[in-house]
Design a protein that fits this description.
The protein is of the alpha/beta class. 47% of the residues lie in helices and 14% in strands. The chain has a five-stranded parallel beta sheet, with helices on both faces. Strands 9-10-13-8-14 form a five-stranded parallel beta sheet. Helix 4 links the parallel strand 6 and strand 7. The longest helix has 20 residues. The termini are far apart.
């Protein structure tokens, strides 16, 4: 007979423990109980548990001590905490200490069942599966990223991913999802800078038929679409303040109200957000709400720029070329030493995404069997990257102007999440003009 999952319940209120034990029994689970930190530690020493649910306030100490003990000594055991209503600080502290999730008092059977169903499915510490866009590189910076991704995948805590444009923030988010208990659920990626402000609320929370012109049927939003999975908010710093207030409420209440609706409906989605901007600076400037930043930035993950891991360039180059050639069913060309040397001296303002564009262009320009330095077309940006008049004059005025224009376009694309229509508007040019410039500069 298959062994039933076993849950350790820690609380100093006998009535609540009785209620929780009944919930476990209805779900077909075994349970053990403890009323103090010391009793919980003794039970954990015996082992055999698949989940620990602990109150934060106990007679002989704080439940966070149990969380830290499990995180250090039993990292494969998910632990969740029970917090007082409105005690956001305790909940965030527990999540940072390693808690899987939290449930606020009053504790209801529905809340407990939802938490337990997610927790029991938490996988072991084996690395998450890699997709067709894995994190390539063996540098110390990338190894640290992998370790942190593996750790946060076992949690339900919100993750905020920082890093320059093109560093692989969405790739990291997808790996966190793939290694989590929600891997079987959907992964919904949203570019917050690409949604018109007047449509944001309906896009995020859904709408009822007739709520506004064009709403000819009930429709779900991003939160409902991500039910049981992960909602990835890319470029979250682009959200207007009015939408930030509504997002904060959805996170706090774990429920949303559709546009045109009356009742709120519960949502069950893990939040991962990302931005190339410094959110703390945005908070200081009044562009981003401090309380939302506090909610999103429970666990921070920084993606290193390509300049910080140049030793990964040979492996990255081979990986990207192999993927590009596989799509067209051709053999990957050899990269000449001079080309690798040129890549190693390039600054890559667009990081891995720019490397992919450079290599795709080089494939088209090369003779097919080898990629040389001249196929990369890196000279204009290299010249502009050197400070001082001498560095600029070596490439001539046109090279300097091209480099300046290229940087402005890259910045605009980064700020708009590579939305070309929005980038053209930001640059003050037409969409057709931007396309012409992208083609002329070899950036398309």
């Amino acid at each position: 007979m298959m062994k039933k999952p076993r849950v350790l319940l820690v609380d100093d209120e006998p009535d609540l423990l009785d209620l929780l034990e009944m919930d476990m029994l209805r779900m077909g689970l075994d349970s053990a109980r403890a009323g103090t930190v010391a009793e919980a530690m003794a039970q954990l020493e015996k082992g055999g548990f698949d989940l620990c649910l602990t109150d934060m306030r106990l007679p002989d100490g704080e439940g966070i001590a149990i969380v830290r003990h499990i995180a250090e000594q039993l990292p494969q055991l998910p632990v969740a905490v029970i917090t007082a209503f409105g005690s956001a600080e305790n909940a965030v502290a527990a999540l940072k200490a390693g808690a899987f999730d939290y449930v606020e008092k009053p504790v209801t059977p529905a809340k407990v069942r939802s938490l337990v169903r997610s927790a029991i499915k938490v996988p072991d510490t084996s690395p998450p599966p890699l997709g067709d866009r894995p994190l390539v590189g063996r540098s110390a910076a990338m190894e640290q990223v992998r370790v942190l991704i593996d750790k946060v995948a076992r949690s339900q805590a919100p993750v905020f991913i920082t890093g320059e444009t093109g560093t692989g923030k969405e790739v990291a988010a997808r790996l966190i999802h793939a290694g989590s208990a929600r891997a079987d659920g959907p992964f919904i990626a949203v570019n917050c800078g690409a949604i018109p402000e007047n449509l944001m609320e309906s896009e995020f929370f859904g709408c009822r038929k007739g709520a506004f012109t064009g709403a000819d049927a009930d429709r779900e939003g991003f939160f409902q679409a991500a039910r049981g999975g992960t909602l990835f908010l890319d470029e979250v710093a682009e959200l207007p303040l009015a939408m930030q207030v509504k997002l904060l409420r959805a996170i706090q209440e774990k429920s949303v109200r559709r546009v045109g609706g009356v009742a709120e409906e519960p949502v069950d989605a893990r939040l991962i957000s990302a931005s190339h901007q410094d959110l703390q600076v945005a908070v200081n400037q009044g562009r981003f709400r401090h309380d939302l930043y506090y909610r999103l930035n429970v666990i921070a993950l920084r993606m290193p720029s390509l300049r910080e891991r140049r030793e990964d360039l040979p492996e990255l180059t081979s990986h990207v070329l192999a993927r590009l050639c596989a799509a067209s069913r051709r053999a990957a060309p050899e990269v000449e030493a001079a080309a690798l040397e040129a890549l190693s001296r390039y600054d890559f303002p667009g990081n891995v995404r720019e490397l992919e564009n450079i290599l795709e262009r080089a494939l088209a320009l090369s003779d097919g069997g080898r990629v040389g330095r001249d196929d990369l077309l890196l000279e204009p940006l290299e010249d502009a990257g050197e400070e001082g008049g001498e560095g600029q004059s070596d490439g001539g005025l046109q090279a300097f102007l091209d480099a300046t224009e290229r940087k402005a376009i890259l910045d605009a694309l980064a700020r708009t999440g590579r939305n070309k229509t929005a980038a053209a508007r930001l640059l003050g040019v037409t969409f057709r003009s931007l396309r012409y410039r992208l083609e002329r500069l070899g950036m398309e």
